[in-house]
Amino acid sequence: MNSAPIGVFDSGIGGISVLSALLAALPRERFVYAGDSAHAPYGERGDPYVIARSQAVLEGMRRSHGIKAYVIACNTATAAAGRILREQHAGFPIVGIEPALKPGALATRTGRVGVLATHGTLSSEKFRLLRERLSGPVEFVPHACTGLAAAIEKEAYSGIEAPTDALLDEHVAALGALGKGPGQIDTVVLGCTHYPLIAARLQQRTGTSVQLIDPGEAVARHTKDLLTSQGLLASEEDSSLSLELLDSGDGQALSAAASRWLTGAAGLTKVQPFATA
Fold first, then answer.
1. Which residues form the signal peptide (predicted)?
2. Which DSSP helix (H) or strand (E) runs through 7?
3. What digits encode the pLDDT tens for the residues 5-24?
4. What is the DSSP letter of 147?
5. 108 is in an annotated binding site
6. Do 85 and 220 belong together in one domain?
């Protein structure tokens, strides 16, 4: 199993931000990335739909690619299906992602932390419990960025930034006062894996005094620790980094996103079809 690939899953292209961190942290591993764009976006869907799709993708990747671990690079899918998948696949390494509220709470100096995420993530029981555990002097200001993930998906293959920028203006403004002053938000948690892909443009709107928190590196560290503890890391003799991209849709957005945003993947445009049934 040490030479088997690690599966990385997202509803579309957003998990590319997590995949970049995984490639950097685990340079000897093989990866298979599956985007479920034919059934996206997940953020405005109900839990039963997201659970069903998350189950189908995991089962499909285990069946077709023999993956040794599964990274859910989607906040909405982790919130809705993470616990259920771990119960159904007991003993199989599954790593989820969640809004980085704790790092946000540690980073803030004003005591106010913005959280940009999808409606599905912010309305989940997992998010509610996470927020309650961190209740105290820090105030979290959540905002559902309706339409933003879908706009980033469209931008990936169209190259047209204006619709995404218009939504960025709207959603950043909805957070309220930003900065280092009393009562202002000085830290913003990126609670959807799509958002780090446009972090530079987001930072332009928040100002450089506001710190953006991206959980991708923490997910990569946790994945490496989990594989190490279970003796599943690829050996230097048996493996070298490789990557296969799969998509349940036409693959155009994922191909464009990999070429544009995936660190170290210049020229990587071939995306294979992926059927879960």
1. none
2. strand 6-10
3. 999 999 989 999 999 999 99
4. T
5. no
6. yes
Q: In 43-144, which residue ranges form alpha helices assigned H by DSSP?
A: 47-65, 75-88, 101-107, 119-122, 125-133
Q: Answer yes or no: do 203 and 223 share one domain.
A: no
**pTM (2 d.p.):** 0.89
Tokens of 209: 């005094």
Structural domain boundaries, residue 201: 101-213
Residue 164 marked as a ligand binder: no
Q: In what order do the strands lie in the sheet with 112-117?
A: 139-144, 112-117, 187-190, 211-213
For residue 1, being part of any structural domain is answered with no
Catalytic option among 6, 18, 34, 74: 74
Q: Is 75 annotated as a binding residue?
A: yes
- Among 213, 236, 256, which residue terminates a domain? 213
| 208 and 236 housed in the same domain | no
Is 74 tagged catalytic? yes
Asked about 145 being catalytic, the answer comes back as no
